[in-house]
Batch of 4 targets.
Target 1
Amino acid sequence: MSQVVGEYRNAIAGDWVESESGARFEDRNPATGELIATFPRSTAADADRAVAAAHEAYQSWRLVPAPKRAEILFRVAEILRDDKRELTELMTREMGKVVAEAGGDVQEGIDMTYYMAGEGRRMFGQTVPAEMPNKFAMSVRQPMGVVAVITPFNFPMAIPTWKLMPALVTGNTAVFKPAEDTPLLAAKLMEIFERAGLPAGVVNVVNGPGEVVGQRLLEHPDVKVISFTGSKEVGIHVATTAARTLKRVHLELGGKNAIIVMDDANLENAAEGILWSAFGTSGQRCTAASRVIVHERVYGRLAAILVERAEGLRIGDGLDPSVQIGPLINAAALEKVHRYTGIGRDEGATILTGGEPVTGAGEGYFYRPTIFGDVERDMRVATEEIFGPATSLIRCRDLDDAIAISNRVEYGLSSAIYTDRIDDAFRAIRDLDTGITYINAGTIGAEIQLPFGGTKYTGNGHREAGQAALDTYTEWKSVYVDYSGRLQRAQIDNQ
Ligand code: NAD
């Protein structure tokens, strides 16, 4: 069935407008090739218009009391909740992830929107004692201005809400540039902002290539914050470009996450966690478990369980609720994953299962869940982000060896260990160099009320979610109120 859902436009200053280029690009279903919609292929001039709109809207939005801003976000959350089913189905059609996962993605958006709306009546600052009599000292969060939100394809609702909601509740305005492969959910979110009564220009959406629209946002002098999630390569470019205008840059980049399985672990439980973490979203998660570091005493048993279960996973169009693995996002992603199969084979890894596209799958970009065995810790398949349904089994001797292997890679997002030994678990919590560690669970499953992000090349020290997210979108202002009625000199030696 080929059905065009719509011809969408950019959202700028409260209007839905064409790009000045007049050009459009296609949004297609990666499971079927079906054309879903077309979007404007925007230019730097379109980005400039959006920044101008956001800049103007900022002058009044920053003065709206935070609890009133939050009331609009609460309405957004309610509409998201009411429309969850429709949004979930659209996401599966556009991005490919199976409906249960797409529903989880929308739910994260709902949860984050409620959570950040709650900040409208919290947003704590500090009051501290002043060192002089009749003087009051406090700090308050202040918004920063126009925030550019640049997102990847793999969480089309969750990631935009993780960025937009803290930005908005703290009084910033935004220009949102969604991934070229998933513009539809961005348009739907924008429609929901409008229905909730968000004033014109507070959020603006500009579609198009990162190298053009995104690039202009990195350079624009009126953009004060860049919140970027995507690949390491583009992230480094974002940071270096934005440094020229001293923007604040929040980067959430790649991962090469490992699950450690110790010899005392419950292997059944570990296998379930590995399959879910390695092959969920077809491995297209920054937190995907693309390495399994397994104690040599249980390597054979775990490998056998994993292979048998991986071969039983149902691959297909995610709209079918019995399907467990959907397609990859596009042809280039499929080609990249298959190239890594060749790289692994050439390096001497064993392909225990998978290692090929699904044949006869029509127009869809389906790849078999792939497990590399006998992987050495420094092989490319053990160190580079593949971003597909592929994981590497690496033997370890003991906990120290396992932690050393886990920490060897340049990324530091998520890590996990299966063990019933409490001392091993706590050593792992302390020594695994990642932003997130799970004990007796896989590498995915973050909740929105704790900080999310990673160390090393996974980011630049900022965090999404939880209270930590507020730090990206606010400046601290320190305020001193002197009610003594006379000059009291601070920072002068009065002794
Ligand atoms: P990508 O880097 O190719 O694209 C991300 C965004 O950057 C897109 O919107 C793209 O248009 C834009 N972009 C590209 N060039 C640009 C430029 N010159 N200037 C400004 N913007 C530009 O990433 P992707 O393939 O969409 O997503 C996959 C990557 O994202 C993986 O590496 C994955 O690990 C990472 N990711 C990280 C997290 C996290 O929280 N750490 C979450 C999800 C995905």
Target 2
Amino acid sequence: MIVMKFGGTSVEDAPAIGRVAEIVGSRSADDPVVVVSALARVTDQLLSAGRAAAAGDRSAALESIQALRQRHLDAASDLLPAAYSSKLQPELESSFDHLQELLISIATLQELSPRSTDGLLSFGELLSSEIVSAAFAARGLSCEHVDARECLITDAAHTKAAPLFDETRARLEARLRPLVERHSIPVMGGFVGSTLDGIPTTIGRGGSDYSASIVGAALDAGRIEIWTDVPGMMTTDPNLCPEARLITEISFDEAAELASFGAKVLHPATLLPAIEKNIPVWVLNSRDPAGAGTCIRAHAPRNHHPVRAIAAKRHTTIVNVAGERAWIPRGFLREVLAVFDRHECQVDIVASSQVRISLAVESDSVTPELLAALESFAPVSCEPRQAIVSVVGENLRGRQGIAARVFSSVAAAGVNVRMISQGASEINIGFVIQEEDVPAAVRRLHSDLFADPKGREGLAMAAVQPQPGTARSCDSH
Ligand code: ADP
Ligand code: ASP
Ligand code: MG
């Protein structure tokens, strides 16, 4: 069996869902399990409706839910013949009635807790998976809708819940395996789960990729396919740099490093379950199903470029913690890191000098409580609106001169480097710049590191591209 995950843009409307049905139909011999995201932008819209309700703007909240109701009903009626549509419509209406009740209670309490946020957001994937499942059935695919809340069991850390793997594996095995065995395609929402008590949870924004790999690892899938709106993993974000090229093969380590440092095409945790079971992960374009896509697996052949790809992680803040007497006493770093740890603030890059420690962290994790805890024993200052740029590739191991090339390229773009990290990971050179400098730095780096003298390397890359439709030939090593 295989797992096929379709992101928001791949299920954004009736034509997109129609394409998904065709793609899944073309793989039916592989016994797919399908995991879908909410329709494009729905999670953001649910969140802003919840915030409006909590801020007392009940009518804005209800209006946006009305628009969402219409969008889902329209997609269903465009996709489905009358017999299927008349069966699904009351189910969708009833979900929207529940959603509306939830928003009214948020507006009454004027509070959007993490728990009610999850209750709210879970509707996105529940609705999309019901529509996609009905669309498959209407096209003659044998399938069954599966409620992800019954299978993906998590702790109660609402909005960023961690899966309870043993329980989840047992539930997935019990619920999905019999369907797969009788060649019926399970269709479930990603991103959403529930606690052992059945309270809905979500596993972090962009988490449907992670759901897919959890399902793949639990059921020992032959491969996991992540279908999205770009040709595959690319040498950098194509929306940032139009010259970005498709990477046809990349190692687990390289792809995991890129995902952790801002390559949004994969949720950062996606590869962990796949690595554990050595399951190849493919990134494919739902608008071009015959495209080669990217194969992510344990080992990938080195290429001619100094690095495999460049990622940028925006929304970063540098927190500076000074030594009390203008120098850093022994044990100070450990104490500082313990504070970050207690406040669940993950440190991406750390640099220390005689007089202070600088830590680059995700901006949302810099809470007033974290700052108060640090200030209780040291002077603290923050530099918001920073970004971490990472150049990643197995070719960095032991190769001379790449760091020099990287930093002279960034300097040539007129961009100042505020912090540097090299060596912690042998395959990543990371540095912090102002967020507004990201486009200039990344474009310049891309053109310098992926230069194509006389077209030679472009030709070499084309030569190693698997032929379209050969996706199944990439086995795990
Ligand atoms: P989905 O809705 O399918 O989950 P996402 O929006 O989460 O899709 O991820 C796809 C996006 O990731 C692309 O549109 C692209 O802008 C972005 N992206 C960032 N880095 C990369 C990269 N290295 N390769 C491909 N896409 C990337
Ligand atoms: N719908 C969720 C989000 O937008 C999960 C996902 O798309 O992966 O974050
Ligand atoms: Mg995504």
Target 3
Amino acid sequence: MDSDLSPDPELLDKVINLAKRRGFIFQSAEIYGGFRSTYDYGPLGVNMLRNVKAAWWRSMVQMRLDVVGIDAAILGPPAVWAASGHLETFTDPLVDCRKCKERWREDKIDGVCPNCGSTEFTEARAFNLMFKTQAGPVEGEGATAYLRPETAQGMFTNFNNVLATIRKKPPFGIAQIGKSFRNEITPQNFVFRTREFEQMEMEYFVAPAEAEEWYRYWIDQRFNWYLDLGIPSDRLRLHEHALADLSHYSRGTTDVEFAYPWGWDELEGIANRGDYDLTQHSNASGTKLEYFDQAANERYTPYVIEPAAGATRAMMAFLLAAYHEDEVEGETRTVLRLDWRLAPYQVAVLPLSKKPELEGVSKEVLAILQPHFACDYDVTQSIGRRYRRQDEVGTPFCITVDFDSLEDRAVTVRDRDTTAQVRVPIAELLSSLRERTNQE
Ligand code: ATP
């Protein structure tokens, strides 16, 4: 590993502190003592999370002709979850520690209670992870609804709707980003595992004979997506599940794993789901979910390749990978080396002082850049302090407007990573920043 990236037991706490202090992620309902395992995204966090989702949508939908998006309901009737297998099998093994009475997910604790060290547990029982609720004012079975534990089923139940309304044929995909809910037994590690989280999933429908090839293709694509957005290759790896460990629907699953401060763990899963989902929903609903290939005069149930990522978990990995402490002018600084596409602010406009003339030019600069980049504007404290503040939240470019700017109509552009500064005429600022971010 790059020495800069070696495992750091304190890294998780540092990132949690920074996330709270700088407005990325807050504990939910904090003024009431907090609500376990729920988090609110603050002003910088919401920008970054939106950027993560936008980068995914761009790569998975916008840049492709073979994938379209949907946005399906979070609430669903039991019939969907009976057919998908979730009512029956979406469970984790729950055990109680006989000594301290804490409850744990058996497959995550290696036989030792993380709370008291005891090795005495109750028999494991299957605990269903779905949140059950009630739709409408009437109680009873007819009113039961579930919060979706994954976004995928919305793509399967809308398979015919999408086929009928867009002119696609396999191989093609349906993508969705949205909230999912799982009543996790032991939510942990900040936003890595929470009960309410956001997913980015795509179901790619293919002819059965091509499924293996597309499975490999999507593993490759998804691995490269993280690399392209700046996660160093030594902090990513692929882990192919053994056949015996596969979920009930899967014919093959490979995880993209990230080196978290606690070790390697899942970032995203890519699965070959075969024809399980479409067949289940066809049988249960009585509506055939198939594709008719006119050229071959053949009807078949497509296989599904599913890259399933967590938006909130990915954001956490990007934060962890970007966090660095280095030395600038003899002082330690904290810097988030985020890709500019993910940074909460891409540009900060900093008038050297609060003098009205400087603020006037600064506002002009802001008006030029704001339509194209997420901008911050900061006039308080010394310029050095303001640079450090921007470094700490990952702002790639600081634009300083000084007294010379009034004469030469130029500003100083400071680079977050190298701290190098260049003078750029205001008239060329936008094109210069576009060039530096590879947007021609
Ligand atoms: P695990 O075995 O760790 O519980 P999983 O393999 O069941 O997770 P998937 O169903 O494959 O997870 O979900 C796809 C992706 O959704 C995961 O790779 C992860 O990024 C994200 N995800 C799943 N559960 C959670 C959660 N509780 N909190 C945050 N993200 C999650």
Target 4
Amino acid sequence: MSVDTEAAALVRGSSSSTQGVVWRHRHLLDVDVVSWPEIDLIMRTTDEMKGILARPIRKVPALNGRRVTTLFYEASTRTRVSFETAARNLSADVVSVATATSSVTKGESLVDTIRTLEALGAEILGMRHSVSGAPYLAAEVFGGHVLNGGDGWHAHPTQALLDLYTMRQHLPSGDLRGRKVVIVGDILHSRVARSNIWSLTAAGADLWLCGPATLLRGMDCWATAWDGGAIPGHGRFNVTSDVQEALRDADVVMALRIQRERMQGGLLPSLREYAARFGLNAERVSLAKPEAIVMHPGPMNEGVEIAPDVAVSGRAVITEQVANGVAVRMALLYLLAGAHEAAHAHEAGNPGEASR
Ligand code: CP
């Protein structure tokens, strides 16, 4: 099958709600600028990628010859490996930069590193940085596409999208409207929570953020502003330290890691006390609906924010989240690289459009 035919076949599966939706973003830095029809397009494209991953040979030539570079200034297992696996599944050439062994250790700036990688042929950059906003700076100087794999406390858009995809797989009709989604843990330091606020309220979920007051700082102001109709069409979200109220009748429960590496002293008396008061154990999970799913973006601190038996229980979909991360990132690479528009142009009998 030719590249164009393969790409066109991918798009043929799109629902009527996404037909005609054109992907217009050069970068994906957060989900706050992605409209609901565009999120739906990502979800439908991910469905197609899941179809590819179910084949005996999980590889298509959609990004043949395109060059994807990962640049991670912070540790990662899931995000980096799934970016690289996703790129290889689409037949892209992949370069992985480990900053610990790069010229970053000699004092090279982020801007110089980005310019160097571009000069070496990078076209799509999947990056993570400990400083909030770093991918936005990268996007200003890089001539290709930037995919944010997590910046500081700020955003983790690909995680939010794989979380949404996983929830849709488990909720009836894939519809989050009115569904109670609870995120419990270290909200303050969580880029996952911040990106999920945008995507889950866009999906119409009844979102609850729960944790000790010291780890919810600023969220109540945000929730109040949101309630005032900040974003037309978005659902509101709730902020509470009452874990029982949060978990009662929940459809989805997501635990977040206590990020000790980002924590200054005084936010928690001890990890043991946190586990006792907020840790997701079997008794607390039983407050949720019987069919509720349990999620965690990883990496987990078992015995702190989630009990080991809950993490491997029949309700847990944590490894599904990881697996879906490959398909979601394949979809995003495909859309950012312009393959979706190329396929549309091919379907419309105007391949010249594809090269714009
Ligand atoms: N969820 C997540 O970002 O995991 P990694 O830090 O392993 O990439």
